[in-house]
Amino acid sequence: MTPLLEVAGLTAGYGPVQALFGVDLTVTEGEVVALMGRNGMGKTTTIGAVMRLLPAAGTLRFDGRDLLSLPPHRAARLGLGLVPEGRRCFAPLTVAENLTVAARPGPWDAARIGRLFPRLTERRRQPARTLSGGEQQMLAIARALMTNPRLLILDEATEGLAPVVRQEIWSAIRELKTEGLAILLVDKSLRELKALADRAVVLERGETVWAGPVQDLTDEMTDRWLGV
Ligand code: ATP
């Protein structure tokens, strides 16, 4: 089967500073892939390159189409939905407005978002800046879903949240997986990633050093690549 997202030999950087030296990664339809690695190993940079927010080279295809030949806004429109690190909702806009500005045609609309995150419906008339951290994270996920993505990319979606809120986010992600949405995610919770992901891709110094089914990740491997 052709992968939905195909990344091979990807290089990217920040001006003169090269950060990625050869990232290989695939996500097929309906698959959940965890992008792992210690701090600074290139996870967020990989996501930025996939979203075409950074100059990059190598193979980068989405649904068979060459993303590197497209301008960034066109790339996202092919069906890449990003939940960026740090949430970045439009603070002065209400919850409902945040959702409306993101909307693109497809099965996801405000009603369906309300079933996934009932709290957002309760808060729909409030400006995003008045939401709690967990609610803002729900809104960031909701906004990405409103674009009706074929691949949802989550960068540290549970970072800095209380354990109970974190569980709400994980349960929403599980539900999206059950619905068959392809997901690429970065998170610090190895336990949750192992429970949820089908496959893992491990980065070390901007390069893929391992990829395979999560259950094949041994303690020795996680100590070596993810330990502090
Ligand atoms: P973290 O979990 O800390 O976010 P990460 O795996 O996502 O880690 P990246 O943020 O992708 O890692 O960083 C990869 C490399 O690129 C690091 O060496 C980092 O210092 C560098 N880097 C990241 N952002 C910038 C930037 N804006 N300008 C210059 N270098 C950067």
UniProtKB/TrEMBL annotation:
Keywords: Amino-acid transport, ATP-binding, Nucleotide-binding, Transport
Organism this protein belongs to: Oceaniovalibus guishaninsula JLT2003
GO biological-process terms attached to the record: L-amino acid transport
Record-level Gene Ontology MF annotations: ATP binding; ATP hydrolysis activity; branched-chain amino acid transmembrane transporter activity
Pfam families listed in its UniProt record: ABC_tran (PF00005)
Limits of the ABC transporter domain: 5-228
Entry protein name: ABC transporter
Family classification: Belongs to the ABC transporter superfamily.
